Amino acid sequence: MKMKKSLLSAAVAAGVAASAQAQMYLNPEGTGQTLLYPIYTVENGNVTAMHIVNTTDDAKAVKVRILEGKNSDEVLDFNLYLSPRDHFAFGTILTADGVGALVTTDNSCTAPALGGPNGGAPYDGSTTTANGVTTRIQPFVPYGLENSDQTDTSDARAWMGHVEVIEMGIFDNSTTGVALEAAVTHNAMGVPANCAAVVAEWTPPAGAWLTTPSLAMASPTGGLYGFGYVLNVEDAAAFGYDAEAIEDFYAGSTDLHSRPGSVAPDFATAGVATSAWNLIETATGPQYVENDYANNLGTSVAAVSSLFMTSSISNDVIVDPAVAAQTDWVVTFPSKKAHVNGVAALAPFNELFDADGPDTIASLSCEEISIREWSREEAFTEPGDVTFSPEPIVNTVNPELCYETQVVSWNGESALNVRAPATSPAASGANGGYRYDIDFSYDNGWAIMDFLTARTLNGDVQALEGLPVIGFAATKYVNGERSYGHSTEHKTDIVSSALTP
Q1: Torsional sign, CA 204, 109, 47, 355
Q2: Which end of the chain is more exposed for a tag (fewer CB within 10 A), N or C?
Q3: Cα(263)–Cα(139) distance, integer angstroms
Q4: CA–CA distance, 177 with 487 (Å, rounded to integer)
Q5: pLDDT tens over the chain, length 501 residues
Q6: Domain residue spans in the chain?
């Protein structure tokens, strides 16, 4: 990582000196304006805990967006107002009604206030206080799926997915800004002075932010970091991960603050940078280059995708029966939705997602992969010898991944307790989870997952190959009544190709 840090620091310094145009980058130091959490899951007793930390002296407005796993559709969205040096902690759980939900005992201000009504049972939230601790539960909702006329609107569709956190700005030095910063700042008892004040700004008919969202707001300053872990109490195992942090996400716009429930800001919002720092291979070794994607998708989506491009991911696989080991790979395409939900699939993805089509494989957006396996002593299994469940799609030689968040389980056992796959990878929701099973040929070893059919993503300087991927491997060992877990981030390629104008 030291090489990447030094290369990136030199590249960013050169870019700042040469241009006033912002270029986003994946910050190896772990802080940024945007955070991406590769997974949440509430299946089979899982609880996923997530944390958002403000390392700065600025009070911040932050968009928190929970996205289901099939097509990254919103199932919960709210504005979070962090005081300086604030830490917001929340979890995802499964309610008694079989609905995924956010739960928190944190006092940080949100709009709307968590734990409130959300359209009737089983989606109304609840707020309870015991022993001085207030617990707020806010169920996930299917309204976004219903409004887009999707066939699969089951609550189980939102049992797994990923999370976006996007900073929208800081409170400015105006009279209103100073007053609102004071309202969200915690007192000596750890309680904000007046959360109702920020909620009132969004409340009809007099809420000032309803007509002027930029009132009392200044440009984002970054400095957010995040982490999460999937915990299963019955298994006594936990798997932690760091959120990916994008710095210089914006190109200088100050009009970014949006109402709760709005799809903005997102990766395609006006004001998001269209340029990115990409690490490429050159004749003299790896180096960062500034790539602009304004002429690619016409938005900033390609710039975000470029940060996570790789032609393959590599990681360990441990399925040793002597310690009852199980391994899962979390594979998330965090920007896929923006590439596959238009009139034509946009590179690097190949197939459209058909939101209102029948819930079959033809409605999904799938990408071909192959698997290469090695033991720890260099024994090798060819890609064609690897079996994959569900079976390959008709007329497809290779297996495919069809979701935006999915888990690959090795040898039919899931370390993360993700539901077993249905007979078709299209049948998520109540019929099966976002999981694929792959047979591994050895007790201990490692594997490479190659993305075979991805199209080239063209910047103005360099073309990138592969798909935008985040995730990690989760491995669990069982020793009698005790179990242990650990996680390791996926390893990726430095991928570039000759640019064809």
Answers
A1: positive
A2: C
A3: 19
A4: 42
A5: 444 555 565 555 455 444 445 799 999 999 999 999 999 999 999 999 999 999 999 999 999 999 999 999 999 999 999 999 999 999 999 999 999 999 999 999 999 999 999 878 899 999 999 998 999 999 999 988 877 767 788 899 999 999 999 999 999 999 999 999 999 999 988 999 999 999 999 999 999 999 999 999 999 999 999 999 999 988 888 999 999 999 999 987 777 999 998 989 999 998 999 999 999 888 888 899 999 998 776 679 999 999 999 999 999 999 999 999 999 999 999 999 999 998 889 999 999 998 777 667 778 899 989 899 999 998 888 776 555 555 444 334 578 898 999 999 999 899 999 987 655 444 444 456 899 888 899 999 999 999 988 789 999 888 999 999 999 999 999 887 778 889 999 999 988 776 543
A6: 32-247, 308-492
Gap between the Cα atoms of 433 and 439, Å rounded: 18
Peptide bond into 220 cis (omega under 30): no
Please check whether residue 168 is in contact with residue 62, taking contact to mean a CB–CB distance below 8 angstroms: yes
* Listed residue (279, 227, 219, 215) closest to 249, CA to CA: 219
Residue 186: other Cβ atoms inside 10 A: 17
Task: Show the tokens assigned to 39.
Answer: 């997974």
Burial tier of 382 (Cβ tally within 10 Å: 0-12, 13-18, 19+): exposed
